[in-house]
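Quick one, C-alpha cells below:
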C-alpha cells in the first residue's frame, strides 16, 4: 500500500508485514481491542518524531527545584517557546520524597489528549541528567559506571574519556565516537579493540595507526585503507620502519600538517572500495551497522535482535517497529523511544521495566498505564491517577474513542511536546532540517546564545610544542560556527603526548565532522558496481564511492 506523508509529502510504502504487526500489537482493554491505524508519516518523519525528544549533547546551567542549588541539566532554564521544568538531581528524582500520583488529574473529554498530557508533563519533576554509577562525570549524560569523563554520552564502563558518543568499555579516549573495547584514541570513529590510534575509522584489532580507514589486524599503518594484517604501511604501500617513522612525523605536530593529512585520507576514502553495508553475521536483514540480527528490515545500530523494522539503536530486541534507543529485551513495542526491558508498549518515551503502557513517558517498573508521566512501581493509572483494574478498563476505552475523534489515536507525541529545540536533538543528526522548515512543521528551534559567541583574541599556536599551559585559561572561538570553547588540562596533556595541535573547532563541530563519516539512515536500491547484483545500501546512487556487494567486496579487499 502506497501512502503520502502528511509531514513531508513524500510517498512511502506500508507493507502487509506492518499491517499485520499493527493487528498483533493492538491494545486489548478489558474485552475490547482497539486497532491502531496505519502510520500517516513516512519512516524518516516517524524517526524524527521519536528522536526529537532525545537530547544527548546540549547541557545548561540550571538549579534544583528542591534545594535551589546550581546543577547541570539537559533542560535550558529559558527557552524561546516558554517551556520550563522542575529539575531534580538524580538522587532527588529517585527519592521517596515525592510521588507522581500527587500530580494526577482527570481526563477532560472536551479537550485534545496531547494538550492535556503536555500540561501534565510540564508539572512533573524532570531529572537533570541520565547517569548511574559514575564518578567525577559531571558533564555527561546517558552514561553508566564511568570515571573521570567529560562531555561524553551514551557510554558505559569507560574511564578518562572526553568528547564522544557511544564509548563502551574503553579508556583514554578523546574526540571519538562509536568506540568499543579500546584505549588511547583520538579522533576515531567506529572502531573496536584498537589502541593508540588517531583519525582512524571503521577499524578493528589495530594498533599505532593514523589517518586510515577500514583496517583489520594492522599495526603502524598511516594514510591507508582496506588493509588486513599489515604492518608498516604508508599510503597503502609497505615501507621500512625507519622510512615509516620519518613519513609519519611529517604529518604530526602542526595544524597545517594535520589538515594536509585529513585532505589525503578524505580523498583515499572516496576512492576505496566500500562494502554495501556494515552488516555482520545477519540473516535476511537490511540497513547499516547490524550484528547478529535476523529478519531486521531497514534497521540501524542494532545487535543481537530479530523480527524488527525501522529501528534506530537496539540491543537484544524483538518484534519492534518504529522504535529508537531500545535495550535489553524489549518486545512488542511500536513507536517508542528509550526503553529497557519492556513488553507491549506503544507511543511512549523513556519507559523501563514495564508492560502494557500507552502514551506515557518517564515511567519505571510499572504496568497498565495510559497517559502517565513520572510514575514508579504503579499500575492501572490514567493521567497519574490511581484506579482499580475495573475502573481502568472502563475509562480507557472512551479516552481512546475521544482520541480517534480528534485524530490523535495512532499518532506519536507531536513535535511541540518536546522540551528541546529540534536542532538540540539527535533528530537533527538523523533527519537534518533548516530552521525555516523545522518551524514550518511546528517544531521548536534553539537559537544560539550570543554570550557564547565572543570573538577570539588569542592566537592558537601552529604547533603543539608551542602551546603553553595557560592556553587552558583562554576563550577560543570555533573557526566553523564561532561558538566559544576551552581546552581542558587533560586535553592539552593528551595532545602533547600524541604530538597533535590544538583543535580550531569546538567539540560540537568536531563531533559533527565525525558523524559525516557515516551515511544517513536511508536505504537505496542500486546495483553492485562490479557484478551488477541488486543491493540495498545507504550509499545514494549519485554518491562518488565505489560500492560492492558483500561477495565482490570480500574478493577485492581480502
Amino acid at each position: 500500500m502506497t501512502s503520502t506523508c502528511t509531514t513531508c509529502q513524500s510517498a512511502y510504502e506500508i507493507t502487509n508485514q506492518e499491517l499485520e504487526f499493527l493487528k498483533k500489537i493492538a491494545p486489548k482493554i478489558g474485552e475490547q481491542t482497539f486497532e491502531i491505524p496505519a502510520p500517516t508519516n513516512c519512516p524518516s518523519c516517524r524517526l524524527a518524531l521519536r528522536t526529537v525528544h532525545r537530547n544527548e549533547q546540549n547541557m545548561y546551567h540550571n538549579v534544583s527545584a528542591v534545594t535551589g542549588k546550581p546543577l547541570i541539566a539537559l533542560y535550558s532554564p529559558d527557552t524561546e517557546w516558554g517551556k520550563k521544568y522542575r529539575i531534580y538531581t538524580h538522587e532527588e528524582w529517585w527519592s521517596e520524597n515525592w510521588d507522581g500520583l500527587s500530580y494526577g488529574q482527570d481526563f477532560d473529554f472536551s479537550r485534545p489528549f496531547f494538550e492535556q498530557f503536555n500540561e501534565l508533563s510540564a508539572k512533573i519533576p524532570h531529572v537533570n541528567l541520565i547517569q548511574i554509577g559514575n564518578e567525577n562525570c559531571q558533564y555527561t549524560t546517558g552514561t553508566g559506571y564511568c570515571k573521570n569523563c567529560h562531555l561524553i554520552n551514551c557510554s558505559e564502563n569507560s574511564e578518562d574519556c572526553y568528547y564522544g558518543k557511544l564509548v563502551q568499555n574503553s579508556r583514554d579516549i578523546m574526540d571519538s565516537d562509536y568506540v568499543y573495547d579500546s584505549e588511547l584514541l583520538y579522533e576515531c570513529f567506529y572502531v573496536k579493540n584498537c589502541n593508540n590510534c588517531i583519525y582512524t575509522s571503521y577499524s578493528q584489532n589495530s594498533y599505532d595507526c593514523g589517518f586510515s580507514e577500514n583496517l583489520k589486524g594492522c599495526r603502524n599503518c598511516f594514510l591507508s585503507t582496506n588493509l588486513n594484517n599489515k604492518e608498516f604501511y604508508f599510503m597503502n604501500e609497505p615501507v621500512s620502519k625507519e622510512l615509516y617513522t620519518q613519513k609519519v612525523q611529517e604529518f604530526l605536530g602542526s595544524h597545517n600538517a594535520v589538515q594536509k593529512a585529513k585532505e589525503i585520507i578524505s580523498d583515499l576514502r572516496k576512492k576505496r572500495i566500500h562494502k554495501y553495508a556494515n552488516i555482520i553475521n545477519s540473516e535476511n536483514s537490511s540497513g547499516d551497522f547490524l550484528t547478529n540480527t535476523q529478519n531486521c528490515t531497514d534497521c540501524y545500530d542494532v545487535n543481537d535482535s530479530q523480527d524488527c523494522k525501522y529501528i534506530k539503536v537496539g540491543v537484544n530486541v524483538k518484534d519492534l517497529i518504529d522504535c529508537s534507543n531500545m535495550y535489553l529485551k524489549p518486545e512488542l513495542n511500536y513507536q517508542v523511544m528509550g526503553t529497557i526491558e519492556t513488553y507491549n508498549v506503544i507511543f511512549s518515551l523513556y519507559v523501563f521495566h514495564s508492560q502494557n503502557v500507552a502514551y506515557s513517558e518517564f515511567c519505571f517498573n510499572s504496568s497498565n498505564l495510559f497517559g502517565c508521566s513520572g510514575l514508579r512501581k504503579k499500575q492501572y493509572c490514567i493521567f497519574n491517577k490511581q484506579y482499580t483494574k475495573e475502573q481502568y478498563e472502563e475509562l480507557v476505552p472512551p479516552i481512546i474513542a475521544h482520541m480517534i475523534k480528534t485524530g490523535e489515536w495512532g499518532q506519536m507525541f507531536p513535535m511541540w511536546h518536546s522540551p528541546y529545540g529540534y536542532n538540540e536533538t539527535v533528530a537533527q543528526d538523523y533527519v537534518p532540517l533548516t530552521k525555516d522548515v523545522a518551524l514550518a512543521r511546528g517544531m521548536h528551534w534553539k537559537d544560539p546564545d550570543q554570550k557564547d559567541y565572543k570573538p577570539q583574541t588569542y592566537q592558537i599556536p601552529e604547533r603543539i610544542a608551542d602551546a603553553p599551559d595557560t592556553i587552558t585559561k583562554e576563550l577560543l572561538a570555533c573557526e566553523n560556527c564561532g561558538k566559544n570553547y576551552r581546552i581542558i588540562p587533560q586535553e592539552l596533556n593528551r595532545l602533547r603526548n600524541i604530538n597533535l595541535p590544538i583543535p580550531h573547532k569546538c567539540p560540537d563541530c568536531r563531533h559533527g565532522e565525525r558523524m559525516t563519516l557515516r551515511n544517513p539512515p536511508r536505504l537505496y536500491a542500486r546495483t553492485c558496481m562490479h557484478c551488477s547484483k541488486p543491493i540495498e545500501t545507504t550509499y545514494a546512487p549519485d554518491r562518488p564511492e565505489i560500492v560492492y556487494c558483500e561477495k565482490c567486496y570480500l574478493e577485492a579487499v581480502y
